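Q: I'm building a small set of examples for a reading group on sequence design. Run inverse folding on the following structure and report the sequence directly after it, with nothing in between.
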């Protein structure tokens, strides 16, 4: 029981600090407007594309091949299409985009928590090392989520709290990893594919569409390129 409690604590803290730190980084700056807003939306798109193609899809393919990854990816797109009507009305489209990104990030954090739990059971130092690496690994995802939330007019404190909430599933994943050891490779590959599909839908259907509504296409392009480079650098380093 004590080991399970430690696992939940470790996974939860790693998830909260990772995405939360990304939210805090952007919240410390001023609220983006004009060309700066276009740059931030492009930046978020680039970061998410780096996460999808450098992290989620390669991991899914390595686990179980093309089949489960493609099924999961299609399910992620379909889930976002079905959920979209429930996010209509009320808040701005940018805030909705940020919330959708949070769903994709949360879906990604659960299997990362599983890795922490399974690693901790195998060797305590391995679990601790994974938790630290994944915590740092999630910083760009928190940044990508916070950018549209802040641009949409949401308060800085609330934006940070929402990025923190996106990290919570890592704690649940760590608990599941501690109880079950791990999910089957096919299930885990499908989960990663699901997160990838959700993020791709959001990038192309929401983030970039919002960016191109603004009269600053060059800022959007530069932001996207910089976001890809930044995301790749952080993923490779951590």
């Amino acid at each position: 029981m004590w080991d399970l409690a430690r696992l939940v604590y470790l996974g939860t803290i790693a998830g909260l600090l990772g995405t939360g730190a990304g939210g805090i980084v952007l919240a410390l700056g001023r609220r983006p407007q004009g060309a700066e807003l276009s740059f931030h939306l492009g930046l978020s798109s680039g970061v998410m594309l780096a996460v999808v193609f450098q992290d989620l899809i390669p991991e899914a393919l390595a686990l179980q091949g093309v089949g489960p990854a493609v099924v999961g990816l299609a399910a992620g797109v379909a889930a976002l299409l079905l959920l979209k009507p429930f996010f209509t009305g009320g808040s701005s489209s940018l805030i909705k985009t940020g919330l959708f990104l949070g769903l994709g990030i949360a879906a990604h954090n659960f299997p990362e928590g599983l890795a922490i739990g399974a690693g901790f059971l195998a060797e305590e130092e391995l679990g601790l090392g994974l938790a630290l690496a994944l915590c740092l690994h999630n910083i760009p995802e928190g940044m990508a989520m916070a950018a549209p939330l802040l641009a949409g007019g949401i308060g800085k404190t609330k934006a940070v709290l929402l990025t923190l909430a996106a990290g919570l599933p890592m704690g649940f994943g760590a608990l599941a990893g501690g109880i079950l050891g791990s999910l089957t490779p096919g299930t885990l590959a499908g989960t990663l594919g699901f997160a990838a599909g959700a993020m791709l839908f959001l990038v192309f259907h929401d983030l970039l569409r919002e960016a191109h509504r603004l009269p600053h296409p060059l800022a959007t392009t530069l932001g996207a390129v910089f976001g890809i480079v930044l995301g790749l650098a952080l993923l490779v380093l951590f």
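The chain has ten helices and no strands.
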